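User: Structure please.
Assistant: Input sequence and predicted structure:
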Amino acid sequence: MKVYGREINFKRTVEATINIADMCPDSDIANADKLFDGTYQVSQKTAASFMAILSKGYEDNKSFWDPGYEPNPLTVREALSLESNEFDALFVEAVRAYTGEKPTVETEPPKDKKKVEESSSTEHGSSSTAES
């Protein structure tokens, strides 16, 4: 997603996971499900930190693969400065990166699919009845 004129990406690296674990209750990644519990203010600040950590994971990883690349991760301040709808959309992408979930794209079959199949089978002389 493009934010502040640059593409923001996320990656769950070992360092990112360690930093997220440090934010969890008892500094235990097993408590990650409780990470965003609390008041609106606390959960939004935690979400901003979560995004910044995973953005840094992506940027650092990319810089290892491309030595000339200068990492430019999303900062907590930048995340908190977003409009709510942008913040929420970016957070969804960060969660997907953390969980490994791929975005789903729903598609519909062509509206005239049945007509196309019928005309195709009659053009080629095929029949839908089975021979004995």
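DSSP finds five helices and two strands in the chain.
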